[in-house]
C-alpha cells in the first residue's frame, strides 16, 4: 500500500493542507504502507522552490515523515510527453481562446463550470471551426492538446463520499492534457505520477472529488490500475469560504510562532472528529485511533 501527499508550492502551507497531509499519512501508516511526497510544481509562473522547501520543513516539524525521494513534477516533462504520445489517437490540437469557449457555452451552465463545446474536435458534430479559420489561428496561436471524452458514465467509489457517477461529456467536455504554453495539465501529470510512483490510495480535499472522474478515465485508457479514493471535507473560514493561501493566520509558519506541533495536530484531530477533546497529540499517537468512518462529509468551519 502506498499513499502520497502532492502539494503545489504556490504559497505557505495552511491548515487545509495539513489536514490532507495528516489524513493521508495516518491512513498509510495505519496500513503499514509507504507515504510519498510529490511537489506539483508544473506551473512555472506560480510555483516557487522556496515554498517547496518551507513545506518540507513544516511537514518534518509536524512529524509527517515521507518515504523515498521527493518527486518534482517540473523534472518529469519528458515522461508526460511520452504518455501524451501514447494517447495521440484520442487527442487533438485546440486553438480556442477562453472567450471563444465561454461564448459557445450552453446558457444553463451557471455553476461556473466550463464545458468545452468541442469546437476543434475532428469531425465534431458541434460548431466546428471553419477550415480557413483553423488555418489562420494555427499559424499565430499556439495550440493546446485536448483528450476526446466519451458520452458515458464514469463510475467510481470514494471512501468518504460513496459512489460517484460522472459523465465527462457534460461535466467538462474534452479536457486539456497540455496547455497552449506547453505546460502539462494537472490531470495528466497526476495520473502518470501516481501510477509510476505505485500510489494505491489517493487522499485529498473534496474539491477534487469530481476531478477523479477525469483521472479514472485517463487511467483506464493508459492501462493503469485504479487506486482507492478518499476525499475529505474542506476546512472553511467563518464566511464559509474554503481556506486558501491568503488566510495568513492559518499558515503553518504563522501558527508555529505560538503553537507546538502537538497543539496544532490535537486541534485538527478534534475538529475532524478523530478525538473527543482538542488535547495536544502527536501524529504518531493518532495512528491506532484513526478511522475513515469517523471522517464527516460536511465541511468544517475553523476560525
Ligand atoms: N496539487 C494539488 C493541490 O495542491 C493536489 C493534487 C492531488 O492531491 O491530486 O491542490
Describe the structure.
With 303 residues, the chain is an alpha/beta fold. The protein has 2 domains: 185 residues, Rossmann fold (3-Layer(aba) Sandwich); 108 residues, Glutamyl-tRNA Synthetase, domain 3, CATH 3.90.800.10. Helix content is 34%, strand content 17%. The chain has a 3-stranded parallel beta sheet, covered by helices on one side. A 3-stranded antiparallel beta sheet has the order 4-5-8. The chain has a two-stranded antiparallel ribbon with strand order 6-7. A hairpin with a 3-residue loop joins strand 6 and strand 7. Helix 7 packs across helix 8. The longest helix has 16 residues. The model has no long low-confidence stretch (mean pLDDT 92).
Question: What characteristics describe this protein?
Answer:
2 domains, Glutamyl-tRNA Synthetase, domain 3, three-stranded parallel sheet, binds glutamic acid, three-stranded antiparallel sheet, 12 strands, alpha/beta, 303 residues, globular, Rossmann fold
How far is the N terminus from the C terminus? 35 Å
Rg measurement, Å: 21 Å
Give the bound compounds: glutamic acid
Task: Let me know the largest β-sheet.
Answer: 3 strands, parallel
Strand order, sheet with most strands:
1-2-3
What is the count of structural domains?
2
> In DSSP terms, counting alpha (H) and pi (I) runs of 4 or more, how many helices?
11
Q: Tally the beta strands.
A: 12
Order of helical and strand elements = EHEHEHEHHEEEHEHEHEEHHHE
Give the integer mean of the pLDDT values.
Answer: 92
Low-confidence stretches: none
Q: How large is the share of residues in beta strands?
A: 15-25%
Gross geometry? globular
Task: State the name of the first-level CATH class of the largest domain.
Answer: Alpha Beta
Q: What is the SS-derived class?
A: alpha/beta
CATH topology of the largest domain: Rossmann fold
Which superfamily, in CATH terms, is the homologous superfamily of the largest domain?
HUPs
Helix content: 25-40%
Task: Provide the CATH architecture of the largest domain.
Answer: 3-Layer(aba) Sandwich
Amino acid at each position: 500500500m502506498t499513499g502520497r501527499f502532492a502539494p503545489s508550492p504556490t504559497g505557505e502551507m495552511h491548515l487545509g493542507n495539513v489536514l490532507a497531509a495528516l489524513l493521508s499519512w495516518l491512513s498509510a501508516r495505519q496500513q503499514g504502507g509507504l507515504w510519498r511526497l510529490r511537489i506539483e510544481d508544473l506551473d512555472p509562473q506560480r510555483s516557487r522552490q522556496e515554498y517547496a522547501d518551507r513545506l518540507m520543513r513544516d511537514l518534518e516539524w509536524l512529524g509527517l515523515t515521507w518515504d523515498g525521494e521527493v518527486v518534482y513534477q517540473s523534472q518529469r516533462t519528458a515522461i508526460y510527453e511520452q504518455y501524451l504520445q501514447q494517447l495521440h489517437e484520442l487527442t487533438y490540437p485546440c486553438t480556442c481562446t477562453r472567450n471563444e469557449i465561454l461564448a459557445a457555452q450552453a446558457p444553463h451552465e451557471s455553476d461556473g463550470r466550463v464545458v468545452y463545446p468541442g469546437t476543434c474536435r475532428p469531425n465534431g458534430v458541434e460548431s466546428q471551426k471553419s477550415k480557413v479559420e483553423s488555418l489562420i489561428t494555427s499559424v499565430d496561436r499556439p495550440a493546446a492538446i485536448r483528450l476526446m471524452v466519451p458520452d458515458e458514465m464514469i463510475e467510481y467509489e470514494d471512501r468518504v463520499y460513496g459512489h460517484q457517477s460522472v459523465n465527462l461529456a457534460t461535466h467538462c467536455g474534452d479536457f486539456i492534457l497540455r496547455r497552449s504554453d506547453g505546460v502539462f495539465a494537472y490531470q495528466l501529470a497526476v495520473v502518470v505520477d501516481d501510477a509510476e510512483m505505485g500510489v494505491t490510495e489517493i487522499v485529498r480535499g473534496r474539491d477534487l472529488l469530481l476531478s477523479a472522474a477525469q483521472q479514472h478515465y485517463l487511467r483506464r485508457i493508459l492501462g493503469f490500475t485504479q487506486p482507492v479514493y478518499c476525499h475529505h471535507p474542506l476546512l472553511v473560514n467563518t464566511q464559509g469560504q474554503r481556506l486558501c493561501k491568503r488566510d495568513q493566520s492559518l499558515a503553518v509558519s504563522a501558527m508555529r510562532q505560538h503553537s507546538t506541533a502537538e497543539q496544532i495536530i490535537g486541534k485538527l484531530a478534534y475538529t475532524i472528529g478523530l478525538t473527543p477533546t482538542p488535547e495536544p497529540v502527536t501524529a504518531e499517537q493518532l495512528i491506532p485511533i484513526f478511522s475513515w468512518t469517523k471522517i464527516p462529509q460536511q465541511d468544517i468551519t475553523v476560525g
